Structures are given as C-alpha cells and as structure tokens.
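DM between two lab members

TW: hey, do you still have the Membrane protein entry open?
JB: yeah, one sec
JB: this one, 222 aa:
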Amino acid sequence: MGSAKKSSNTARQARIAEMRRAEEARNRRNRILTITLSTVVVAGLVVGGVFLVRSQTDDSSGDTASDGKTSGKFETGADGVRTWKGDLGRNHVTKKVTYPVEPPVGGDHNQVWMNCNGDVYTKPLNNENAVHSLEHGAVWVTYTDKAPEADVEKLAAKVKKTPYSLMSPDDKQKDPIVLSAWGHQRTVTGADDPNVDKFFEKFVQGQQTPEPGAACTNGLSQ
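TW: and the structure you got?
JB:
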C-alpha cells in the first residue's frame, strides 16, 4: 500500500512539473510576442514621423510663396485674347500672393475657391481665392467703376445663368471690363460685344482648365 501511495505522489509531482514547464513555455512565448509587437509599433511610429515631417515640409514650402510662382508674359492672338506664355504655379498657399497681372490668370492660390456657379459679387474678391476658381475652369468677369451700369447689369445677368462663371468689381485693373480664364484674358467694349459670348463658349470648362469638373460650389461666398 505504501508503494502505491508513493507511486501516486510521484505521478502527481510529475504532472505538476509538466504544468510548470508548460507555464514557463507560455510565458516565454508571450515575452517574445510582446517584444516583437513593440518593435513593429516603434518602427511604425518612426516611419510615420518621417512621413509627417516630410509632409509638413512640403506644405510649408508652399506657404512661403509670395510671387505666384509665375514666369512669362502675355502674347495677344489675332482674336484679341491674351494668352500667358510661361509657367503658372498651382501650389496652395496661405499668404498673399503678388501676381504679375491684374486680375491674375493663374499662379499659386488659396486652397479654398470662390463659389463660381453663376455667382455675382458686389465687393472685390481676394485674388488668391478667385484664381482657384479659374483652376476649376471658371470664367471671371471683372469691372471698374468706369464700366457703364447698363453693361454691368447685362453681364451680371449672363453670369447668373452660366455655371462655372463669377463676377466682381476690381478697381485695380486698367480696363473697364475684363474677362479672365486660367492662362487667358481679354478686354471687351461692353456687354453687347460679341467677344463676350466667344470667350465664354471657349473658356467655360475649356481645354485650358487644369482641373476639369472640379466643384464651383461649397467654397467661399460674400
């Protein structure tokens, strides 16, 4: 009987020893898994940090622009349309931009566009927002206080029924009435000038559009 009891104790101790070995093995596996996961997480954080720094560097380089990143000059065609021959920057910036022409026909601009779904504004616009509208394929009608009131009213009526167009006063421009699109511009003698319709037909969402089909709503409005 004593021998049977001794054998039972030996078996129990063997089972306990086996359980301890199994527990130690699980602990080792858990430690290895934890170390592996920690390494992966740290590596991910390092890569993410590098990406973030690079992204912020890229963005900040655009914010420092002040010249519109434009170079070149206008060339006037036989149809009277002035076409910009040179580079027109397309970076999004947060600062004011000094454009080489007034009103501008392209260049670096604010990331938010002016609504241009037939919108008629009664106050001057920030060029940086309006240029973004041109990038979306809009035609921008601007006028000074020298433009006859009747012409302003007729042009406003045309703009209101034309998606991808906008209108605003601009006393800094030289001519009484100016039509602008991305990279293109012309003056007209009045609302009844046949070149008004020709300009709209060619440049509203025309081939010059850098971002065809981009929105002209959900932007800024006065």
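TW: got it. Residues 75 and 83 are 5 Å apart (CA to CA). The longest strand covers residues 70-76.
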